[in-house]
UniProtKB/TrEMBL annotation:
GO terms for biological process: phenylacetate catabolic process. Residues 332-428 form the AMP-dependent ligase C-terminal domain. SUPFAM superfamilies: Acetyl-CoA synthetase-like (SSF56801). Residues 79-282 form the AMP-dependent synthetase/ligase domain. Belongs to the phenylacetyl-CoA ligase family. This is Phenylacetate-coenzyme A ligase. It comes from the Bacteria. One of its GO terms (molecular function) is phenylacetate-CoA ligase activity. It comes from Thioalbus denitrificans. Residues 411-430 are annotated as: Disordered.
Amino acid sequence: MHLHEVETIGRDALADLQVRALRATLERARRSPFYGRRLAESGLGPQDIRSPGDIRRLPVTTKDDLRAEYPFGLVTCPREELIRLHASSGTTGASTVVFHDRQDLDNWSDLVARCMYMVGMRPGDVFQNMTAYGLFTGGLGMHYGAERLGCLTVPAGPGNTQRQIKLIRDFGVTALHIIPSYALHFAGWLEREGIDPGELTPRIALIGAEPHTGEARSRIESLLDLKAYNSYGLSEMNGPGVAFECPEQQGMHLWEDAFLMEVVDPETLEPVPDGEPGELVLTTLQRHAMPILRYRTKDITRILPGDCACGRTHRRIDRITGRSDDMFIIKGVNIYPMQIERVLLGIPEVGQNYLIILDREQDIDQLRVKVEIKAEHYRDDPAAMAALHRHIIHRLRDELLVTPGLDLMPPRSLPEAQGKAQRVEDLRPR
């Protein structure tokens, strides 16, 4: 099927495609020890799939399942057919690992190239990949997609901002892959060095790998003088290329020929209506070496109702507002870190860096926010600083419904991350 036909396929034809792909996925999945047991217990076989919704007859798969089956319990093919693995860091528990065969890598590269083409990248563009390579999927996933599209690909990796600038200038880079927190750090570096972003050649930035707000994206676009497109992926579903913004920038099209999507209540696991927030659950439809069924991503989003003006028929999800396990409760109110970022980066006086601190006093959880103020607004004027403090507190209280502690910090006083930013410091006793 031609790429344009895939992206604009009718919903009935897409459902037929998903049914065929889901039957083949179940047939393949039961070759693995884990799904062999699970499918036998459920009694669900490929012949029982008559609509995409029949997948709900299966239990969900969790990260704990992947850890328990480490390393090969979900693999469906002979090990000599495996040619790539990616793994989590395992910093909060045992590692999880995902394996790919040749067809998996080809499909993944095609999906990422599809995303890049959608936002305006073309053969001949020069693509600078400013994220980490290795077990992290973002580096190699974007790299292979750019090469598949026909772009000159610069595997710069993260950090070393001065070298990044030299590469951009020397090779006329037109597109970047950069995580949002480093993009803001990068913009601050340009400002301090007196470099006008308008003199640089990039016109497109692909941003993802960590949740971020629309306010963060707007800052990145303004500070770097380019268009920034939101990306969503996770290693269990390949990595980048699961969902991507189109030029309309009104949600991310999730590629439903490759992934079956559900949005469910995190507590009951029942589906929620389109437009309502819930946890994203995904099933692979193109994976050969290690298909995964009904994976709980823990990512909170919603399906955006209605059609997209771009003409693509694959449904859109909203930007990720956080993870169900990132939520914290202060004075009985559920709070996600992204709510705090949305407020802070919507205030012109606020700089690029902030830190959320959770602590406990007299058995009560407390929230404190440290935020850098731009140099031109951080001055020895107690009245002005007090007024700014009140303004930020007021905005945070309106959003969060609780009043946090707040510290206004001078520029560059908080730790700067050139990888994924650690925005939350939890000091509460375990």
